Amino acid sequence: MKECVLLVFLTLCSAKPLFRPSHMTLKNMMLKDMEDEGDGDTDPDNSLFPARESVNPFFPFDLFPTCPFGCQCYSRVVHCSDLGLSSVPSNIPFDTRMVDLQNNKIKEIKENDFKGLTSLYALILNNNKLTKIHPKAFLTTKKLRRLYLSHNQLNEIPLNLPKSLAELRIHDNKVKKIQKETFKGMNTLHVLEMSANPLDSNGIEPGAFEGVTVFHIRIAEAKLTSIPKELPSTLLELHLDYNKISTVELEDFKRYKDLQRLGLGNNRITDIENGSLANIPRIREIHLENNKLKKIPSGLQELKYLQILVLMKFGSIGVNTSFRQLKSQDDFKVYCQYENYQWDEDYDEEPDDVYQPEFQLRQNVDYGVPFYQHPLGCASECFCPPNFPSSMYCDNRKLQTIPNIPAHIQQVYLQFNEIEAVNTDSFINATHLKEINLSHNKIKSQKIEHGVFAKLSNLVQLHLQHNNLEEFPFPLPKSLERLLLGYNEISRLQTNAMDGLINLTMLDLCYNHLDDPMLQEKHLAKMEKLMQLNLCNNRLESMPPGLPSSLMYLSLENNSISSIPENYFNELPKLHALRMSHNQLQDIPYNIFNLSNLIELNVGHNKLKQAFYIPRNLEHLYLENNEIENINITAMCPSVDPLYYHHLTYIRVDQNKLKEPISSYIFLCFPHIHSIYYGEQRSTNGQTIQLKTQVLGRLQDDADSEEHDDRRESPEQEGTEENVDPHYYGSREWQETI
């Protein structure tokens, strides 16, 4: 009997107080939520936590009317992380749903940074240097649901946040106070994460959470000395780990009748008053590890839904009356492990038996409570959430080595650590791995054990970007579909480096040291299913030879390419998008882009002096920052066929040397044009000029004109020329003047 009691209570459970999803998982989670029509809170699929299966967008850039330089845009998502930005980009498309600006150097959010982004759903600003957010910065983002401000230098939670917010994460800042007006009117706020802030027990003003229905609050790693008593009564989860709480009083939990998960680990608790835990009758999980308790708290026997109790590393502990009463009940079921403990002989004699470290009791069938089935194995340095049993989260933990990965794990997230080597031993049991994220570490090529990845026959996705790799990793498994190697120092490709990658569809080699000789052996031709190739920000001076005919997306920005061979694209009939901005192109063969599937073409920031033939299906053309003095429409469109109109909808020609607007003939040949962006033009003396346009405003088709009016102008501004962007020509009014 005694042995069974000890096995139940002296345990180290695999549960953790809070699931912190990785950056990639957060994006996947939000993309999944964005697909749910209505975004109602009653929809069980509209979860605040990630789905079991990753929902990764296939391409890192898709077709956008505009995309900020250096960013990647896809599916109404603008991804601008890790670019060293000091401010928010100014040309974010108006219909953007998510903006990712994490890991930059942004110090301030200004009033107009997000103006007009009325469809914005999620904004990620983690890991910047923010000290100030303008009170009106979120005035027009009335659909914003998720805001991430963690790892910045904010002294307060911004006021005037959108009332639509469902999730606010402001972890690791300098917030000392929650003001009474902070969350006023935010009736849909469900998750508040503000750990690692210098918030003490007097920092929460009375009434700060009045009228707010928050379900999840985490204020860990702060300076709390007592349980906050004026948090929302709707709380389901409360995490106060790593504070300075010393006592739990009888009245502390009376307000939180629906609480199901409570984290009080790593405090200084010496006493929990009798009956205080009985005030949370629906509690299922309690964490009390690493405190100074001398006995098991009383009242546990009254908690019929309790499933998990973490009592790890007590100074001394014994079996008291409530211990035995709780054990005698059939409703306390748990799956845990136990660690070494100090036995207190005042309670009972120490048993001589050697206990098994793992065991399982029956489910809570008496009350119909769902049972948290924790996975059999999880590295102690990581977290394996019970509701996502095939994933292991080890990110942002300052790890220097890769922990052993259990056999059942399919996704392992190890990004943002200090890992320098990849050894076979860590993956010896990981036969089911499908995804590995080792980005943002310190891995060098010579520290990757030969064949470590090739043995993972189910691996589909491998992230090694932002490391110190000098050469292409080899060998790799045939199963691999997505390989991300950007932001490394790769300058060498072995002759057979890409052999066997027959299923690879996406390869990212941006921001490396690749030059022309490294690609002359036509390594890339071996990947017959490759659809997307990113070679931006390398040292290329000519077009890479021997690209596979399956290619649909090609990124060559920020190289030194000066010319394109005349028949280069003949072997790339499926090409949908080509990005070659920021190169040294001076001339383009007239008919070079006659590709039936080409939709986006970006040759901005080059040295072009004239336009070229535009293929029929092209929709977005970027010619900004070149040397163009006149745009010859006849060259772009030598003939007009009323049965086969061109599909061009957007042209960008700012920062050229145009002296007059493009001829109105353009709208005969390209009747679908929505806008032409002129911006500023450069004159011969180096100054900038603005063309005098006959028509103001950027216009749309009838189908989206109503949405446009709501997005760009307030009711009192609508129809006034003073508030229309003079840099745009509107296509409809131009057509009327022809």
Query: Which fold name fills CATH's third level, the topology of the domain at 579-738?
Result: Leucine-rich repeat, LRR (right-handed beta-alpha superhelix)
Portion in helices: under 10%
Point out poorly predicted stretches.
Answer: 1-25, 36-65, 315-376, 694-738
Q: What is the first-to-last residue Cα distance?
A: 95 Å
Count of discrete alpha- or pi-helical segments spanning 4 or more residues: 8
**CATH architecture name of the domain at 579-738:** Alpha-Beta Horseshoe
> Taking all residues together, what is the mean pLDDT?
78
The count of strands amounts to 34
Spatial order of the strands forming the largest sheet: 19-20-21-22-23-24-25-26-27-28-29-30-31-34
What fraction of the residues are assigned to beta strands by DSSP? 5-15%
Which CATH first-tier class of the domain at 579-738 would you pick? Alpha Beta
C-alpha Rg, in Å?
30 Å
Largest sheet: 14 strands, mixed
How would the global form be characterised? globular
Structural class: mainly beta
Could you explain how this protein is built, in words?
Keywords: Cell adhesion, Cell membrane, Disulfide bond, Extracellular matrix, Glycoprotein, Leucine-rich repeat, Membrane, Proteoglycan, Repeat, Secreted, Signal, Sulfation, Transmembrane, Transmembrane helix. This is Osteomodulin. Residues 66-98, 377-411 form the LRRNT domain. Its main location: membrane. The chain has 738 residues and is mainly beta. The protein has a domain at 579-738: Leucine-rich repeat, LRR (right-handed beta-alpha superhelix) (Alpha-Beta Horseshoe), CATH 3.80.10. The chain is built from eight helices and 34 strands. It has a 14-stranded mixed beta sheet. Strands 1-2-3-5-7-8-9-10-11-13-15-16 form a twelve-stranded mixed beta sheet, with no helix packed on it.
